[in-house]
Amino acid sequence: MSALATTRKQPPQYPGIGRIARYAIVGGIVLGCVDILFAWLFWRGQGLTIPGVFQSVARGIYGKQAASLGNTSVAVGVFCHFSIAIGMVCAWIVFVSRKPAFNRHWIPWGALYGLLLYLFMNFVLLPMTPVGWPKFANPTWIGASVGMHLLFGVWCAWCGSRYLSRW
């Protein structure tokens, strides 16, 4: 090996996709579990079960027939729900990795991110599915859902801050 090869500067090492994926998966699983628990606790008085919560998620793919598909729609709902939750955390981590200034005040930025997630879910994503536009008929649910999305955003930002602090 020549002397030139040993003195050449090495490019900076950035964490690989595997490290981002670990933080996003763990953070997304926690977020997804809290979200399902929240939805179930809110609606259980009306007879909704945890499998029923996942079937309501599967309505985004199957429409109203999701309830009649049994365990198939439950499994699809689980997959979709946790994929979305992992994606939410991953999107924040990738964003804050490129814009670390947002990590300095991660709580307010996370809350804003949560509000943007709520708006995206209700005004962009849901209208593109068989569910269609949300009805916004239950003010208590709207308030609780917005509040939880603010917390979800803060959770995503916390995951991002932990990711960057270990970078």
Written account of the structure:
This protein is an all-alpha fold and 167 residues long. It has one domain. Helix content is 72%, strand content 0%. The protein is built from 6 helices and no strands. Helix 2 packs across helix 4 and helix 3 packs across helix 4.
Largest sheet, in brief, is: none
Helix fraction?
A: over 70%
- Beta-strand content estimate: under 5%
Total separate domains: 1
Residue-averaged pLDDT, rounded? 90
Uncertain stretches of 5 or more adjacent residues: none
Q: Structural class per helix/strand content?
A: mainly alpha
Number of distinct helices: 6
Distance from N terminus to C terminus (CA atoms, Å) equals: 32 Å
From the spread of the alpha carbons, the general shape counts as globular
Oligomer state equals: single chain
Which features does this protein show?
mainly alpha; globular; 167 residues
Fold blueprint:
Elements: H1 3-7, H2 17-43, H3 50-62, H4 71-98, H5 106-125, H6 139-165
Helix pairs in contact: 2-4, 2-6, 3-4, 4-6, 5-6
Short description:
This protein is mostly helical and 167 residues long.
